[in-house]
Every structure is written in C-alpha cells, then in structure tokens.
C-alpha cells in the first residue's frame, strides 16, 4: 500500500504539509495524489473513531451480528440481494462469507425490540432470504484494529537515556 | 566517608555535568523527551506471549553459558539466510546481555595492558570507559570535521604499533551515520594493512534507511578480524529483555565465553525464549517499525532545517544530530535552557565525547504528535535566544 494511504489510515487528520515532510515530497504533489485517491474512490471518507461504549446517549444502542442464508440469483449471484439488504440504514456492515451462511450483517438499533423488528419484518421475509441467525453483541473488545479500552498511553520508558 | 573505598579509576569515570543534567530532566514533569535512547514501540505481542508461555511451561532455569542452543541455531540460520553471514552456533557465537555486555567481553577478551583501541567519536557512552576499565588505552578520534564520518585518512593517522582494534558502530548512536559498502571497503583496507581487529557494533543495522546495510564481516577477508555485535533491542523493540549476541573467530568467542561464564553465567531464559520467537515471526514488525521511523526521520530533519538548525539526513538508527553552533551556545547550556524554558529534553552532544560539542542528540523514537510539538517549541526557543 502507498505510504500516503498508510499514514492516512492511521491518522486521517495528518496534514498535507506533514505528510510531505515525512515522505520528502512537495506538498502540492501530495495534495494532488490525495485528491486523485478521493476522486477514484480509494479514499472514501474521513471519520473519527468514536468509542460509543462511553458516549452516554449512544450507550443504549444495540448491535447484532446476523448470519443470513440467501438463494443466489441467475447472472448476478448474491450481489443484487445483498444490495437490497445493505441498503437498509440499520445495516452498518455487510459481508459475503464462506461457510454455512452467505451474508454476515452488522445491524444497529436503539434497543433489542428495534433490531428484532427489523429482522422479523424486513430481513427474514425478504424474497430469496432462506434463513437468519441473530447474535446480539454483548461487549466490544476490539474493532477495526482499535482496542476499545481507554488507556492513558503512558510512556513507560525513562525520560532520558543513552 | 566511604568514598575512599571506591577505586580511583571508577571515581574518575562519569562526567559529572551530564549526570547532573540527566537528574534535572528526571526531576521535571510534563517534559517532551527527545532524549530517549530506545524504541517507543512495545515488544510485538507474539514475542511477549512467547516469553509468558515459557514461564507457564516452567522454563525458569539457567541455560548453557553460550545461550540456548535453540536460539543459537535459530540465529545461525537467520544470519545465513538474511545477512550472508555464517557462524557456527557451537563455537563462533555467544548470547550476551545486550550488546553492552558483548562489547565489554570483546574488549576484556583482547586487551593487554597498554593496548590501544580506536574509538571514533561522537560515540556511544560506554566505549571509552569499558576500554579504560580493561586496562587498555582508548584512542578517541574526532570525526566532527568530516560530518561525523570516519575516513580512511583519519583512521590511518590514529594508528600506531600499539593499536589492537577499533570499535566501529554503524548506524551510529548518536549521529545516525551509516557507511556504504564502498566506504567500509576503504576502512577495512586500512585495518587489514595494520592487522587490527574490528569490533563492529551493528545493533542498529535493521534501521538503515537509504541503502542496504553491509555487515562488516561480509567484506572480503574481514570475517577473521571482526567481532560482530548485535542484538534484539533495537530491531524488535526488546531493550528491557537484554538479549544480544556476539559472533566472531572461535578463539575470541571462546575467550569471551570464559569471562561471560564467570561474570554473567547466562542470559535470562525468558528473554532467550522470547528472542527465539522474534527470529521466527518478528520480521514483519521490524519492517513496520522501520517504515514508521523513516517517516519520522524525514519529518524531523525537514523541520529542523526549516527552523534553522542544520542537520544532515542520518542514514540510520533513530537519532538526529543537529548542529547548534549557529546559536553560539555550548551543547550543555543549549540543552539546559531548552529544558527549562520549553520543557523539551535532548541530550547534549558532549555526552558522546568532546567532539560532540556544538551538537545535540534528538531521538525520533517518539510519536509524530510529540515530534511536532517538540519542533514547534524548539522553534519558539530559537526565536527567544536570537533576541
């Protein structure tokens, strides 16, 4: 992966000037490359990683992993039915997986009932959906490489050494 | 009162000014420190886990003096495959408590009273004291006029009939200087001509950014005259585990092992077990850390030159060694003032020998956020002393 992407993946707020210094390139060059990534859809957006576990009003949010069995369609396979499913705003992630099930969804709702209603009224009764298995998430430990534990990042090294 | 019992040699050792400065830094809170001589990464988890697992399995005993056979064999294979070096794990290899012990052993194993050891400076702090303690004569060579690079000419001039060896450290702590193969060939030619031994401290070898590191012992004809010292501290972020190794001709390794067995016995087994894991699965982490250091290096050197501190691009390690001569301040005064007014800690160049006067060492083994803030503060500091 290009180093610009590596830097931005770690810190979406890294400035063009700092990236230019780090890679010994002109800021204008870096800016151009980033713009191209944005235009080509390589960079889809920038966002903060929020630990929702400690945001009070969002704390009541419920998440579920849902395995979905679907009947693939001629020519388009799983794609069309996947699109119909991931277009629901409740679905925050959608993956095609190997194994017993076909799709793995992550669904968010404000409470248990909301998620249950979504599954029974929207998902399970969709055409081509043959079955679902819902797993409610109890605790998040790590997500997208980030450990969801507040650490003080204390430097354990002695302040000065040879 | 009890001071009278301390040996005169030891009494004379530590330059007191530096000690006082270190104490000043350690006593201060909320300092951004660019004074740390070790990686800011934690040892990769799988390596830590291997250490923990070995404890769970009950590996709590001594190992053979030379080090765990498993580790020496692993090293043998690793060096052969990745570094073009071939050392017999039984007779040409010794696991040491970091490179520090390896260096001490090497010196003690070769020095007769009055033997001279060449030490290009600025250099790591232990070289001269270790030679001195062993009864040798440290011949301190000032390289500051050649951008802190040892040239064949300077080396030639420093040699005489009593010279036994040179301690060559590259990439260098504190300067970040690394030598190309061509430069090393030229230096080796001088050493060969005079029949001197090279103690090569290559502990930062994995952190060479602009060209491939040439291991000294791979130069034609050099192997029999080289004590190669290296370790796990810098490459794998394992400083606190204290694992290093020494490779060299069997007579010298045997001599070093003799001292090691009476003084150290062996390296802690937990650390050796973790080091075995590092050799097998650690390379990916090494590459990741190296890329991160490289980016920080470019950032800090870019900023230093922007704010008016001249600094050449260091080829390796994780240190910048900018000149502060423009400020007109001695290194120690510069460092003290910077600490007191802006709470940024750096190490005065004089800690690494008198030839370090006019320089300070800044470690970029620190997060980019820290480096950014430190550079901004130094910029403010420079403006304040110009007034």
Folded structure, characterized:
The complex is a heterodimer of chains A (162) and B (387). With 162 residues, chain A is α+β, with helices and mostly antiparallel strands. Chain A folds into two domains: 38 residues, no CATH class; 88 residues, Alpha-Beta Plaits, CATH 3.30.70.920. In chain A, 31% of the residues lie in helices and 21% in strands. In chain A, the strands form two sheets. Chain A has a four-stranded antiparallel β-sheet. In chain A, helix 2 crosses helix 3. The radius of gyration of chain A is 21 Å and the shape is extended. Chain A starts with a helix and ends in a 15-residue tail after the last strand. The mean pLDDT of chain A is 91. Chain B folds into two domains: 145 residues, Aspartate Aminotransferase, domain 1 (Alpha-Beta Complex), CATH 3.90.1150; 238 residues, Aspartate Aminotransferase, domain 2. In chain B, the strands form three sheets. Chain B has a seven-stranded mixed β-sheet, sandwiched between helices. Chain B has a three-stranded antiparallel β-sheet with strand order 9-12-11. A two-stranded parallel sheet of chain B has the order 1-10. In chain B, strand 3, helix 6 and strand 4 form a beta-alpha-beta unit. Helix content of chain B is 43%, strand content 13%. Chain B is of the alpha/beta class. The longest helix of chain B has 24 residues. The radius of gyration of chain B is 21 Å and the shape is globular. Chains A and B meet through helix 1 and helix 2 of A and helix 2 and helix 11 of B.
């Amino acid at each position: 992966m290009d180093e610009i992407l590596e830097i931005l993946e770690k810190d979406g707020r890294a400035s063009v000037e700092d990236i230019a210094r780090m890679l010994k390139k002109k800021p204008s060059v870096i800016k151009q490359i980033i713009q191209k990534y944005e235009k080509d859809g390589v960079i889809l957006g920038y966002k903060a990683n929020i630990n929702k576990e400690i945001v009070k009003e969002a704390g009541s949010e419920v998440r579920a992993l849902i395995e979905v069995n679907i009947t693939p369609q001629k020519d388009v396979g799983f794609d069309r039915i996947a699109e119909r499913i991931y277009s629901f705003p409740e679905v925050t992630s959608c993956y095609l997986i190997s194994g017993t099930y076909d799709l793995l969804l992550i669904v968010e709702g404000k409470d248990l009932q909301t998620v249950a209603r979504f599954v029974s009224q929207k998902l399970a009764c969709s055409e081509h959906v043959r079955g679902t298995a819902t797993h409610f998430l109890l605790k998040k430990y790590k997500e997208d490489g980030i450990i969801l534990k507040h650490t003080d990042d204390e430097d354990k090294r002695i302040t000065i050494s040879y | 009162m009890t001071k009278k019992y301390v040996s005169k040699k030891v009494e004379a050792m530590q330059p007191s000014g530096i000690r006082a400065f270190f104490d000043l830094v350690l006593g201060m809170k909320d300092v951004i420190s660019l004074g740390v001589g070790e990686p800011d990464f934690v040892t990769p988890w799988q390596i830590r886990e291997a250490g923990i697992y070995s404890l769970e399995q009950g590996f709590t005993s001594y190992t053979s003096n030379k080090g765990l056979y498993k580790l020496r064999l692993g090293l043998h294979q690793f060096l052969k495959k990745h570094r073009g070096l071939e050392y017999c794990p039984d007779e040409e290899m010794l696991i040491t408590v970091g490179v520090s012990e390896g260096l001490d052993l090497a010196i003690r194993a070769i020095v007769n009273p009055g033997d001279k050891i060449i030490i290009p400076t600025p250099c790591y702090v232990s070289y001269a004291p270790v030679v001195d303690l062993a009864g040798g004569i440290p011949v301190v060579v000032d390289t500051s006029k050649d951008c802190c690079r040892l040239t064949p000419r300077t080396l030639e001039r420093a040699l005489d009939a009593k010279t036994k060896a040179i301690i060559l450290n590259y990439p260098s702590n504190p300067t970040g200087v690394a030598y190309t193969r061509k430069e090393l060939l030229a230096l080796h030619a001088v050493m060969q001509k005079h029949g001197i031994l090279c103690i090569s401290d290559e502990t930062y070898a994995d952190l060479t950014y602009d060209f491939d590191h040439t291991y000294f012992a791979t130069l034609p004809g050099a192997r029999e005259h080289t004590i190669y010292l290296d370790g796990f501290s810098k490459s794998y972020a394992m400083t606190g585990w204290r694992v290093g190794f020494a490779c060299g001709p069997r007579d010298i390794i045997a001599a070093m092992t003799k001292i090691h067995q009476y003084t150290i016995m062996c390296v802690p087994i937990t650390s050796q077990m973790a080091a075995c894991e590092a050799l097998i699965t650690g390379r990916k982490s090494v590459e990741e850390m190296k890329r991160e250091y490289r980016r920080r290096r470019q950032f800090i050197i870019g900023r230093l030159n922007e704010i008016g501190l001249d600094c050449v691009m260091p080829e390796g390690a994780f240190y910048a060694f900018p000149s502060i001569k423009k400020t007109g301040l001695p290194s120690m005064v510069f460092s003290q003032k910077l600490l007191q007014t802006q709470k940024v800690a750096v190490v005065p160049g004089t800690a690494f020998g008198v030839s370090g006067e006019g320089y300070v060492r800044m470690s970029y083994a620190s997060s980019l956020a820290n480096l950014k803030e430190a550079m901004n503060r130094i910029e403010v500091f420079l403006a304040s002393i110009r007034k």
